[in-house]
Each structure stands twice: as C-alpha cells, then as structure tokens.
Amino acid sequence: xxxxxxxxxxxxxxxxxxxxxxxxxxxxxxxxxxxxxxxxxxxxxxxxxxxxxxxxxxxxxxxxxxxxxxxxxxxxxxxxxxxxxxxxxxxxxxxxxxxxxxxxxxxxxxxxxxxxxxxxxxxxxxxxxxxxxxxxxxxxxxxxxxxxxxxxxxxxxxxxxxxxxxxxxxxxxxxxxxxxxxxxxxxxxxxxxxxxxxxxxxxxxxxxxxxxxxxxxxxxxxxxxxxxxxxxxxxxxxxxxxxxxxxxxxxxxxxxxxxxxxxxxxxxxxxxxxxxxxxxxxxxxxxxxxxxxxxxxxxxxxxxxxxxxxxxxxxxxxxxxxxxxxxxxxxxxxxxxxxxxxxxxxxxxxxxxxxxxxxxxxxxxxxxx
Length: 369
Ligand SMILES: [Zn+2]
What we know:
six-stranded parallel sheet; 11 strands; globular; transit peptide; NAD+ binding
C-alpha cells in the first residue's frame, strides 16, 4: 500500500512583491516625482473609493468586487426603468419609494462629508498643472469640494465622474438636471414625517448606516408613505413628467456613451496614467488601464491590496502597494518647498488641511420608522 502525503506548502503570494512597494517613503515620493516629470504635465489621474475612506465614505466593494456589506441591497437600475417607457412609471412604486426614502435619509452624511488630505493633494496636483485631468469612480463630490477650496474658479471640466455624482439628480426621460440639494429640500417639504426622522438622526448622531451611493438600510418601514417629487422641468415644459433619479450609475446600468468616450479620449491623449486608491473593480475603470497599457503609456498605481490590473504589472505598469495619500503628501511637501508662484501659494495654504473622519468600525443603531 502506498501512502501519499501531501506536504504543506508555504502560501506563496499571488505575485512577487514589487520592489516599489518596499521603498522608504522619501524614495517613493522621488519615484512619483520622476514619474510626473516624465509625464510633462499631461498625466491623467484615476481614483476610486480608497481616497474617500478617510472622509467616512464606506467602500461598497471589497477586494473581489463583491459588496463589503452582505446585507446591502443596491438600487438596481432595471427596477427603476423597466416600465417607464410604457408610461407606467409608478408600477414599481414600492421599489421607487423605498429607494428614494433610503436615499433621502442616506444623503446628508455624503452631502456633509469633507475632503480629506488625499483629496487636497490630488486637487493640488491638478492646480499645479502636474496632472491636470482627473477621472474618478467616486460619486461623493469630494474631489470637486477639494478643487473649489484651492480655487473657486477651477476648471469644472478637469474632473470626469465616471459613475456620475450624488450632487445632482436628473429625470430619466429627458435628463433634465437639477442639484441634489434643491431636490432634497423638495422631498423634505413633501415628506414632513420623514424629514423629522432625518433631522432627528442628525441631531442625535444616530445616523443610519450609509453606503457610498448615498443609500441607507431601513427595516420595517412603510415606504408607501413616502412621496417622490416629479421632475419640475418636465412640468414647466409641459411634457409628460418623468421619474427623477440620482445622477449616478446604478448597478446594472452602463455609463453613458458620452462619458465613456470622454474617458477613453482622456487616456489616449495623455502621456501617462497615475492610479490612486482603487482596486479597479468596475469595468469602466479597468478598461481605461487596459487602454493605457495597450497604448504603451507608463502607468503607476499607488493603492493598497490586490487590484484587477495586477496582471499588467511589469508591462508598463508599476505598482506601489501603499496608501496613496502618504506618497502624495510627501511628494508635495518637497515640491512646494522648491517652487514659487501663485498656484504654489494656494497649495501651501491648504496642503495640510482636509478632514479625516473614518467610517465607524461597527454598525450604529438603525433608524426606525
Ligand atoms: Zn424632466
């Protein structure tokens, strides 16, 4: 009789560690300096959930692209639009009302979130012209808040929100846009009881757990009591009113062709790509990295943990397994010391501002209706 024994193998890492990841911080910052210098002011940045964690915005996807909160039921696009073209837009009333009710209660923490130091550093790279263009997967509006700090008149077109923004809503049929704050106020007026709930949650700090698309979990609530305001632009223009949704790409929805084309154009017209704080779990972001690699553009990724683009390592793509903000902060500290000019002064003024407010480790008490 033959006995087969299987030796216990040491767990091998998926990929050999990149030499870049173990560089001491000053050398990592110098490496970034060289990368940006080679980019000659035409480096495009790509960011994700990792840069917003310090602002209390919870990443909704784990390393493998799965939801980090298994109880979280995302808003599904098809649930909203399935019947809208047949003019039967409220046939999914319960779904719509519950989604909007949750979104109504979940929005204030996102609305009030402040840019953290990493957002400031990224805005600084843009402001200094080192990497003027930014593509983000985040919908939390924090890159724009950071840019407006450095310059209220910053170039609005310098930030492309791949998955939309929570700061706006639009109607499904005509894409009439309005600001989320205005729409949120209208919801408050139409739903005084829910408004009270939201204010109470704010007053006591007992905010319901919020996901990054501005959505909360609520249980045992009768959503049918929740009124969803129609699109007022449709009303004004006397066309058949259409449902309003947050200006974000929902799960199951694809990004608009215009945004997709602009993102691809930004990559193909750039000299290099700097990826910060993202595992590239979404295809719309991964596709951009793939394009950059195919076009033989240098790519530097500064983020922690595995990413979907790791197989490209060595093929024009380098990775530093580090917290992006640490390297950016160190680099900028040095950069502003040796530079002059108005932009440098703007950056110096705000460089070490930014608010760190991490999401609570444990789930707080749930809001009750
Ligand atoms: Zn409309």
